[in-house]
Amino acid sequence: MHLRADHSVARALTIAGSDSGGGAGIQADLKTFTAFGVFGASCVTAVTAQNTRGVQAIHDVPTDVISRQMQSVFEDIRPHSIKVGMLSNVATIKTVARELQRADLKNVVVDPVMVAKGGAPLLTADSTDALLAEILPLAAVLTPNVPEAEVLCNFSIRTIEDAKEAAIQLKRRGPRIVIIKGGHAAWGDSREDSARDLVYDGRAFTTFATRRVPSTKTHGTGCTFSSAIAACLALEMSELEAIGTAKRYVYDAIVAAAQWDIGAGHGPIDHTASVEWRRGFTAGKDYDL
Ligand SMILES: Nc1ncnc2c1ncn2[C@@H]1O[C@H](COP(=O)(O)OP(=O)(O)OP(=O)(O)O)[C@@H](O)[C@H]1O
Ligand SMILES: Cc1ncc(COP(=O)(O)O)c(N)n1
Questions:
Q1: Of 61, 56, 58, which is closest to residue 43 (Cα–Cα)?
Q2: Is the terminal CB of the chain with fewer CB neighbours within 10 Å at N or C?
């Protein structure tokens, strides 16, 4: 376990859906926290029957049970950071927002999960307004992929300029930092073989890229990225250090997964990849990790 400056153990909470296949959701988040030496607690918002081939069933956890899980963790475990993933529907969004407001924590990383890699919806179509109005103002870091940013902003993102405009619009909704993830597209990047994420802090655009790994074993990359950022914030890293470190960890976990063979569909990434601490980033620059 890693300690904070005051010698306390770093603690993080994930509020997300359970993935029975073990690659995404709560399972990916807890594995990621452990890889970073951070103690992980959880609040399950939905139970999915899922594997690498797709989502077979979803059971939404009743909102009073979601509230109670969050209260139980806040009362006793007192996390230093929170990752928010699958929220399923408007009632769950409102419940999670209410409990987060009460807890008043500053390190909340929001991954606005909408659709699983296989195409199954993980959020009802009428939830966008509630997500924008209730969850975004509570986020320190917001991590949409390109399709999610398109839904939240209601325009299509084809170039880096479109992505910058989306980041500016989403930042106005309240997050300290907006990251438009480039896992889904090579938008505006001169290197087609790179996966570049755009980071906006309200003043400057910073980008973080790695080589794009030509792999189908990328189930849970978004969950892992956001929980790695939450882990780094619990460890008192700056936001840019957290993002750079998380980005490199996801890349290493995708590369490591090439060695294994789990499931017949979109395989999971390897959370046992080692963590390398990345420091010394300056806002406004482009980084190749
Ligand atoms: N093939 C790849 N090679 C390298 N990096 C990748 C690849 N795919 C995704 N990434 C990186 O993984 C992180 C998560 O991005 P991605 O766009 O896949 O999120 P996501 O779509 O929300 O994930 P998920 O499908 O798990 O919800 C980003 O930092 C992205 O750049
Ligand atoms: C419970 C849960 N949360 C999030 C995702 C998104 O991950 P992916 O897009 O890789 O399927 C998922 N599939 N399941």
A1: 61
A2: N
Domain assignment present for residue 1? The answer is: no
Strands 54-60 and 177-180: unpaired
**Domain total in the chain:** 1
Residue 242 has pLDDT above 60, yes or no: yes
Q: Which protein residue has the closest C-alpha to ligand 1 atom 30?
A: 183
Task: Provide the pLDDT for residue 185.
Answer: 67
Nearest CA to ligand 1 atom 29: 247
ipTM confidence: 0.95
Residue 161 lies in a domain: yes
Nearest atom, ligand 2, residue 55 CA: 13
Q: Quote the domain boundaries for residue 29.
A: 11-288
Residue 191 has pLDDT above 80, yes or no: no
Contact between 159 and 187 (Cβ < 8 Å): yes
CATH of the domain at 155: 3.40.1190.20
Q: Is the distance from the beta carbon of residue 212 to the nearest atom of ligand 1 less than 6 Å?
A: yes
What mean pLDDT do residues 8-25 have?
Answer: 98
> Is the beta carbon of 210 within 6 A of some atom in ligand 1?
yes
